[in-house]
Design a protein that fits this description.
Layout (H helix, E strand, L loop, with lengths): L2 H8 L3 H9 L7 E2 L5 E2 L3 H14 L4 H4 L13 H37 L7 H12 L1
Antiparallel strand pairs: 1-2
Helix pairs in contact: 5-6
Length: 133
C-alpha cells in the first residue's frame, strides 16, 4: 500500500510514518519505479506497536526490541520481557512520585482555603510556605 493509504488506515500523518522509517523502526519499504513508497501489510501492525508503546512511555530506542524481527532472526523474548518489566518499574516509580505530589498539592490547597480570618494574605503566604517546607 502507498503511504497515503497507510496514513489513513493507521491514523498517522505521512510525515510521522516517514520519520519512523528514517529512524529504522519501519523496515522493508519498497519503492516503485515512480519512487513512491510501498508498504507491506505488516507495516500497519508495526505502526500500532510503535504508537501503543509510545503511549505507554517508551522511547523510540526502547521500542526497537519490541518490534517483530526480520525473517530469519529470532525474537529475543528475554530482552523483550526485561524491557517491559523495566518500563513497568519506571511507571510504578512515577505513580509513587505523582501520588506524593498530589498529596502535597492537596495540602497546599487546603491550607490556602482554610486561611485563618485574622491574618492578611501576605502573612497567609508565609504560613503556607512554612507548612510545605
Amino acid at each position: 500500500m502507498k503511504i497515503g493509504e497507510l496514513a489513513e488506515r493507521s491514523g498517522l500523518a505521512a510525515s510521522r510514518i516517514r520519520f519512523y522509517e528514517s529512524a529504522g523502526l519501519l523496515n522493508a519499504v519498497e519503492r516503485g519505479a515512480n519512487g513512491y513508497r510501498r508498504y507491506g501489510a505488516e507495516a500497519l501492525g508495526i505502526l500500532e506497536i510503535i504508537t501503543s508503546a509510545q503511549t505507554c512511555g517508551f522511547t523510540l530506542d526502547e521500542i526497537r526490541p519490541l518490534l517483530p524481527v526480520p525473517q530469519g532472526e529470532t525474537w529475543q523474548q528475554q530482552e523483550l520481557l526485561e524491557s517491559l518489566r523495566r518500563k513497568l518499574a519506571e511507571i510504578e516509580q512515577m505513580q509513587k512520585r505523582l501520588a506524593h505530589n498530589r498529596r502535597r498539592l492537596m495540602g497546599v490547597i487546603a491550607s490556602i482555603e482554610n486561611k485563618p480570618q485574622d491574618i492578611s494574605c501576605a502573612d497567609n503566604v508565609q504560613r503556607v510556605l512554612a507548612e510545605i517546607r
